[in-house]
Amino acid sequence: MQIERLDHLVLTVADIPRTVAFYRDVLGMVPVTFGEGRVALEFGRHKINLHPAAAPLLPHARVPQAGSADLCLIVSGGLDEVAEELAAKGVAIELGPVARTGALGPIRSLYLRDPDGNLLELSVYA
């Protein structure tokens, strides 16, 4: 077997509308509803499905918990512009820019938190 790509991932969140607002308004993701009222966030060819922490959908992670994720997202443009945009939206940068290593090589990253405390790494390839 050879894995081709990641299709989607699931975030367990405390409050779906609050999460949708953050990812839509701060990161520009597009909220979509599918299935029987499920919610996801789309960006490029990817999506993040949202599960409510109070009633996670089956099957789910062994211990579904809001705020336990650590995601790295590649952004377009430069990190200076990203930092300015985050500041304009009142979002604090926790760390960065710092040098890291992504799946395809060296990256520069900024770190911030979503409303549940998930760690988000916004990065550009060097």
Automatic annotation (TrEMBL):
Domain annotation VOC: ranges: 5-125
Family matches, as Pfam families: Glyoxalase
Listed InterPro entries: Glyas_Bleomycin-R_OHBP_Dase, Glyas_Fos-R_dOase_dom, GlyoxalaseI/FosfomycinResist, VOC_core
Protein name: VOC family protein
PANTHER family named among the record's database cross-references: GLYOXALASE DOMAIN-CONTAINING PROTEIN 5, GLYOXALASE FAMILY PROTEIN
